[in-house]
Amino acid sequence: MVPVTGDPNDEDMVRLACELLESSRSRVHILYVIEVERSVPVDSEVAPEAAKGEQVLKDMEQVARNYKCQMVAELVQARTAGAAVVHQAVDKGVEAIVLGTSHLERFGAYALTEPIPYILKNAPCRVLISRSAPVKVQAGRP
Fold this sequence. Notes:
Layout: E1 2-4, H1 10-20, E2 27-35, H2 47-64, E3 70-78, H3 81-92, E4 96-101, E5 105-106, E6 109-110, H4 116-122, E7 126-131
Parallel strand pairs: 1-2, 2-3, 4-7
Antiparallel strand pairs: 5-6
Helix pairs in contact: 1-2, 3-4
């Protein structure tokens, strides 16, 4: 399973998942999670975010077509992305979750962004994390 968000790392994670599959009968699940605020029902209409999710999934399907694996793309709505990824992994019986993350430092130390810590703690399967190369920032420039 590859959770995607529209981040530039998504394509690399889909490629990595497809390359790791053992045969053309293997299946990669591409998942886009729309986080819905607690102030509204979880199944509320969220048209702008749904349109973005559909486009991200369409783009990732195009990446996966270059490989011989089977692919399933799905958009789900949930309160938190981490819980949705774990729930989908359990429901689909996936063997691994492939996550991408950017280099992020908080208070001078490397930090994992949500939902990665939740997924690492609760996933019923292997979790592979690939971090992109750190971006060099010049002093005084954002």
